[in-house]
Amino acid sequence: VKAMSYSSGVRTQHVFDWVSLIWFTSVVSVAGSQGVELQVIPQVATECGKNVTLTCEASSSREMDIKLFSWLGRNKTMCQIGDGQADPEVLCENKAVASNHTLTLTLINVMPVDSGKYLCKLHSQLGPVQKSTVVTVQ
């Protein structure tokens, strides 16, 4: 019985080591191959009737040729570089300084229907990346 529990413990540790190695390798390969980092605030809480601004900052140590930079929410594209105003209930602003790009989405007069997940997506010659923000309306 002792040998069996020891063997089970070794097997569990072995599986944990492999899972850790696979996770670490995937993180390193994603970061290394793309060279692009997106930064968003993961959770934003606001009150009914207020405006809320979601900011997505993209940075890279290499020059980016951006093909697509957008905010998606409520099952549609809310704003996108080069598209102008996609939705009359939002304001979009894009800024670029050197290899840093910022896309802001301002939700106007938020209501409970605006609660949910908003996704910032960037696609460049370095590959696709995305990060999400969850908006809670109280």
TrEMBL record:
Gene3D superfamilies tied to this protein: Immunoglobulins
Keywords noted in UniProt: Immunoglobulin domain
Ig-like domain segment(s): 49-136
Short name of any one Pfam family annotated for the protein: ig
Alphabetized SUPFAM superfamilies for the sequence: Immunoglobulin
InterPro entries named in the record: Ig-like_dom (IPR007110), Ig-like_dom_sf (IPR036179), Ig-like_fold (IPR013783), Ig_sub (IPR003599), Immunoglobulin_dom (IPR013151)
Keyword NAD among record annotations: no
Protein name from the UniProt record: Ig-like domain-containing protein
Keyword Signal applies: no
Domain of life: Eukaryota
